[in-house]
Amino acid sequence: MNILFLSTENPFPLDHGHHIRTYYVLKALAAEHNVHFVAFADNDSAFEYRSELRELCRSVEIFPLRFLGWRQMHLLLMNFFSPLPLIAQKYCQPQAVDHIRKVIREESIDLVHVDLLHIASYRNEISRLPCVLVNHNVESLRILRWAKVERNPLLRSYLFYQYFKLRNFEGKVCRQFDLCVTVSDYDKHLLSGLCGEGNFVTIPNGVDTSYFTRYEKDSKPNSLVWTGSMAGPYNRDAVVYFLEEIWPIISERAPAASVTFVGGSPPKVLKKRSRRCATIKYTGYVHDVRPYVADAEVFIAPLRAGSGTKIKILNAMAQGKPVVTTSVGAEGIDAEPEKEIIVADESEKFAERIVFLLQHPDRAKRIGLRARKLIERTYDWRLISRTIQDVYADLEKNVPENLDLQRNGCRPDGLGLTYQS
Asked: Which of 39, 41, 59, 273 has its CA 20 to 30 A from that of 357?
């Protein structure tokens, strides 16, 4: 089968959840089919990994997104006059439209994979081919949760505006695809309810269990760890929330406790606190988070915003670490609370559960071991890859003959779109 794989990003390097999910789906499809890869890039680093993509794909094309300075302001302004949410308008590129048409025409494409709602408008260019939309998150819910924790009143108002556009867009677009993939049954329930109809299937996120495995060494007593870039609003809010509302309780009840934040773009409050307190540390970007996770007794993920299944939590569980997170962090993970994962939404309870695990390392270890077993039986990419291959093969064989869908896509006419080169 010849597959056109449309992605918002080059998945290399494999340093965060979005990239990891995209890579393993791409790898699973490329193992059995001819894949033609088309993506976008908002920085030059994405072009440095073409060779890795060419090892998997028959062809690779990446289109630059140049939205800096005045271009970014212009995009924000024009979006007020567009029915599309900002994340979708950003990816409407005429050069990409021409290339997609060319690939479909010349490579006898049988099926199209669209990775994320952001580029779902390209459905208009895919004509009558069977098409899969992969939802890494419920995007409208993601923005709504961000809006609820955002402190800047102007940005909060803008986020609510985008939420309503996204919710409308999400509901319409998902009905236009032959298959919509979600990463959890929770997301499937939300999106199917939003759309009112549609063909949904859950293919969960996973873990390379041979890479993320238990280290045969003792962890450092009273140590906590966080992993993930803090550049984005969801992770940044989690770190600030932990430092301002949870850490003071922990440090009072467990004075020997320490915490290490592994990831780039630390917020100002983290830099400031780490200078004043030796038990708060940050590493900056690292190529391999596993040694830092192995050193810690407890993995923390105090997420209050975002959506989808958190791969960093699955990775930590695969390393046999007890994870303390929130309902948002645990969303979509089929783990039993208090036995395979610890869930606490209030700052007091979050701190209390961490202190308990630090004071009862044997209990923490048992939770981590059960978490590892859960990952092995449910979230191993080797198992999930087989599911991916079966689902796509079944769609290609059983797609309805009549795909006369009403579509509104990346067209310059009637939508008020301004394309940027």
From this structure: 273
Domain enclosing residue 187, as ranges: 2-206+381-398
- Say yes or no: 369 and 393 in one domain: no
Residues 59 and 197 in one domain: yes
Number of domains in the chain: 2
Q: Is 371 domain-assigned? A: yes
CA–CA distance, 302 with 382 (Å, rounded to integer): 29
For residues 185 and 313, state if they share a domain. Answer: no
Question: CA 15: distance to chain centroid?
Answer: 11
Q: Determine contact, residues 399/334, Cβ cutoff 8 Å.
A: no
**For residue 309, is it within any domain?**
yes
Report CA 347 to chain centroid distance, whole Å. 25
Q: What is the pLDDT of residues 100-145, one digit of tens each?
A: 999 999 999 999 999 999 999 999 888 689 999 999 999 999 999 9
Q: Cβ(37)–Cβ(60) under 8 Å?
A: yes
Residue 107 lies in a domain: yes
The 10s digit of each residue's pLDDT in 281-325 is: 999 999 999 999 999 999 999 999 999 999 999 999 999 999 999
Please report whether residue 66 resides in a domain. Answer: yes
